[in-house]
């Protein structure tokens, strides 16, 4: 029997929660895309998405 995997990033009683942000980043040399994953506080998601790296 398979085990059920339960993953939680947010404790409802612990203030601001956490969110996983996955961004596609294009390599300027090859043109290929790779993915960058970050776990950030929910209230900082827009700041992370708007920054350029």
Please write out the topology:
Blueprint: E1 18-26, E2 33-41, H1 45-50
Antiparallel strand pairs: 1-2
Description of the structure:
The protein is mostly beta strands and 53 residues long. The chain has a domain at 18-50. 11% of the residues lie in helices and 34% in strands. It has 1 helix and 2 strands; from the N terminus they run E-E-H. It has one helix at 45-50, and strands at 18-26, 33-41. The protein has a two-stranded antiparallel sheet. A hairpin with a 6-residue loop joins strand 1 (18-26) and strand 2. It is flat and about 45 Å long. It starts with 17 loop residues before the first strand and ends with a helix.
Taking the alpha carbons of the first and last residues, their distance comes to 44 Å
Helix residue percentage:
10-25%
> What global shape is seen?
flat
Oligomer: single chain
Using brief descriptors, characterize the structure shown.
mainly beta; 1 helix; 2 strands; 53 residues
Give a nutshell description of this structure.
With 53 residues, the protein is mainly β. The chain contains one helix and two strands; from the N terminus they run E-E-H.
């Amino acid at each position: 029997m398979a085990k059920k995997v339960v993953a939680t990033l947010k404790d409802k009683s612990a203030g601001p929660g956490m969110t996983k942000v996955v961004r596609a980043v294009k390599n300027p040399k090859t043109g290929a895309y790779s993915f960058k994953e970050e776990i950030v506080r929910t209230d900082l998601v827009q700041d992370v998405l708007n920054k350029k790296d």
